[in-house]
Amino acid sequence: MSQPVIADNQPKAVTLQKGKKYAFCACGHSQTQPFCDGSHKGTGFGPKVFEAEQDGEAFLCQCKQTSNAPYCDGTHQQFSQAQVGQKAPDPGPDKQGPGL
Ligand code: FES
Fold it and tell me: What domain range includes position 75?
């Protein structure tokens, strides 16, 4: 599978409701980051549906390279502003994809 697009090089702070299900964008193409808007069609990716474990603010990944999807794990720090909107570089044989 190819790499997702880096939607941004920083996480998005969102307010989640405990027990509610959300569709996290895994392809990076959605215009409603960090959530799915259906833009993944034909990319080989699908959204990651997750249930919020608690009420409150959460930082969701927009670089699509976190190992803790849908949550930011700091991986975005390796991407520059120039890489936003581009496919993420191949992670090599040790790591495949955004951990989805
Ligand atoms: S935005 Fe922080 S790891 Fe992706």
Answer: 1-79
Q: Which of 60, 62, 80 to mutate to test the pocket of ligand 1 (most atoms within 8 A of CB)?
A: 62
> In whole angstroms, what is the distance from residue 41 CA to residue 58 CA?
27
CA dihedral 82, 77, 25, 27 (to 10 degrees): 50
Structural domain count of the chain: 1
In a domain, 33, yes or no: yes
- 92 within some domain: no
Q: What is the pLDDT along the chain (100 residues), one digit of tens a residue?
A: 689 999 999 999 999 999 999 999 999 999 999 999 999 999 999 999 999 999 999 999 999 999 999 999 999 999 999 999 999 998 766 655 555 5
